[in-house]
Each structure stands twice: as structure tokens, then as C-alpha cells.
Amino acid sequence: MRGKGVKAAKEAALPIIINDTSLDVPADPRVTLLDFLRHHAGLTGTKKGCDHGQCGACTVLVNGMRINSCLALAIAHDGDTVTTIEGLGTPDAPSVMQQAFVDHDAMQCGYCTPGQICSATAMLQEIAAGWPSDVSTNLDGDISASAEEIRERMSGNLCRCGAYANIVSAIGEVAGRDRV
């Protein structure tokens, strides 16, 4: 016999802000943020790759920080602000990072691209905030977006087509470097 708590939780509404739009969508507490975005919010730009947090195709920004949405329960993000690839820009007005990916041909099949762009956007914010990585040459907060730094920070996002060189170039351009 199911307890009242299970039924009440299934019928609970999940208030969440997605791409500057507040949604109050009924959500099963077992639904991942990825499935919530794709199936409940109708935002299919975020992709399901491995569904194990290993490929990065599902990367979104939650309160400005990148996460693998396949590993997060939607109910855990009650009240959070989620930004998906659709919230970064549009085909008519792409974000700087989206445009750089196009300009540098930083995609082939495009499946991983939404996660790559979301991750790259947050990664540059991490560098600007002075967060060091394993390859940072100093820990005083003065970190440059070198090719090595970009590769390290993007290592959680896989591209089966192997467009890594162009991805690094696109991110480097946005970081203010002509060549990385």
C-alpha cells in the first residue's frame, strides 16, 4: 500500500525558472532535470547522451553554474534559475559563444553542441571569477584562457566527431584571444 506522502509528492507542483520564464509544472519527484526540460518544459535543445553524467551533452546552467542535468532531480531545483541552450540565444540573435561555434565550425553532427556551449559559457565565468583548475599556473585568481586551460575545463564534454580543435578556437576567441 502506498502512503499518502508518495501520492502528495507526485502531485506537487515544481516552481522553477527556465530561461527567464517561471514554470509551475507538475513533476514526479523521480524525474531528472534533463527529462523535465525535454518532456515537461518542451525544451529539446538539451540532449540525452549517456544518461550517466559522463558525456556532458546534457549540460545546463543552474544559478549560473554548469551541471549535468541527467544526474540532477528536477524537484531538487525548486526555485532555481535554469538556463538551457535556448536561453543563451536564438537563431536570429545568437549568444557570442553560439556565434563563435558557428564561425569556427566547432561542430559536426551537432549533438554535443548545446552542452558544449553551455559548459563553455560557464567555464569562462569560472575563469573570470578566478577559480583555478588542475592546470592553472597560479592560484591568485589571475587565470588566462590558454588552450591547455580550456581543454582541461572542457574535459567533461565529449565530442564523438572530434571537433575539439575548433571548439578550443571558438572558446578562445570569446575569451578574447585571437589564437589559442
Automatic annotation (TrEMBL):
PROSITE patterns: 2FE2S_FER_1 (PS00197), 2FE2S_FER_2 (PS51085)
The keyword Transcription regulation belongs to this UniProt entry's keyword annotation: no
Ranges where the 2Fe-2S ferredoxin-type domain occurs: 12-88
Nucleotide-binding is among the record's keywords: no
Signal sequence interval, chain numbering: none
Sorted UniProt keywords: 2Fe-2S, Iron, Iron-sulfur, Metal-binding, Oxidoreductase
Name by which UniProt lists this protein: (2Fe-2S)-binding protein
Native source species: Aurantiacibacter xanthus
